[in-house]
Automatic annotation (TrEMBL):
Domain Coenzyme Q-binding protein COQ10 START: 110-230
InterPro entries: COQ10_START, ORF3, START-like_dom_sf
CDD domains given in the database record: SRPBCC_8
Short name of any one Pfam family annotated for the protein: Polyketide_cyc
Residue ranges crossing the lipid bilayer per the database entry: none
Stated name of the protein: Coenzyme Q-binding protein COQ10 START domain-containing protein
Signal peptide region: none
Gene3D superfamilies in the record: 3.30.530.20
Protein's organism: Actinomadura napierensis
Length: 262
């Protein structure tokens, strides 16, 4: 091969490589443009959802916007985390429904007679022996109960007043405390001679920092569900084995007054 032929071959290879490079760049540009279009649509969707969403939705939007603006995944993750923190604090300290009401409705079926289930429930001072978060219950009178329970690593105390109580049917109470309160109703429904449904309806008004944090993530509803399971296990393993020893309070209360003693 002479010099001219070698030069021609080299030039052809260079042009081919240049053309291949341009073709490759066009493919890369198309992929990037497609990715940016998808990301832009995702940002628009997240923006629409975040308008009515909570801290997590707004955090996801912040992360997607950071990626769309060309920031690294690490910076995008940092933006999402910071936004989640800010939105959470905003809800806790005035940006959301401070002290708002949360309704909690839970039910559980217990394989025991309705009378036995009701009687065991009225033994409030037994609650700490089988409920994980109840520290103590002091029944000052037929209507008044003083409670102490754990909230995260802290503890809370409150007083509840029974305003309505009908044996084997329902108990209605109101409560007061420095940090949040829980009003509610528990009712008992005989499904069969040896099967009772317990229906618990609570109105939870968080007051302190820990309570509002727990309320934000619906932690209290999960705790109620778990405590009901502890109650069922206690009835099935303890109360049923010695029903004669379960002496419940069989009186009747209306408008906060005892109208029929047991």
């Amino acid at each position: 091969m002479n010099f001219r032929t070698g030069l021609a071959v080299g030039a052809g290879g260079f042009l081919a490589a240049h053309a291949a490079g341009r073709f490759g760049r066009r493919i890369v540009d198309r992929v990037i443009a497609r990715y940016e279009a998808k990301l832009e649509r995702a940002v628009r969707r997240l923006a629409a959802r975040a308008e009515f969403g909570g801290p997590l939705a707004k955090a996801a939007l912040a992360g997607a916007r950071a990626l769309y603006e060309g920031k690294s995944p690490a910076r995008a993750l940092l933006s999402a985390g910071w936004t989640a923190l800010k939105e959470t604090l905003k809800r806790l300290f005035g940006g959301g429904r401070r002290g708002g009401l949360t309704n909690i409705v839970e039910q559980i079926d217990v394989g025991a007679p309705c009378r036995l289930v009701y009687d065991q429930w009225t033994r409030f001072e037994d609650f700490p022996s089988f409920m994980k978060k109840v520290v103590s219950v002091d029944q000052a009178s037929e209507q008044k109960l003083n409670w102490k329970a754990k909230i995260f690593w802290s503890s809370r105390s409150w007083q509840s007043t029974i305003v309505e109580q009908v044996p084997d049917r329902h108990i209605v109470w109101r409560s007061k405390a420095a940090k949040g309160r829980v009003d509610g109703t528990v009712s008992f429904h005989e499904l069969a001679p040896e099967l009772t449904r317990v229906l618990l309806v609570l109105e939870y008004r968080p007051g302190g920092l820990f309570e509002r944090t727990g309320n934000l993530w619906r932690a209290q509803g999960r705790r109620v569900r778990l405590e009901l399971k502890h109650f069922r296990r206690h009835v099935m393993t303890r109360s049923l084995t010695a029903p004669a020893e379960v002496e419940g309070w069989r009186g009747e209360i209306h408008d906060g007054e005892v109208v029929r003693a047991p």
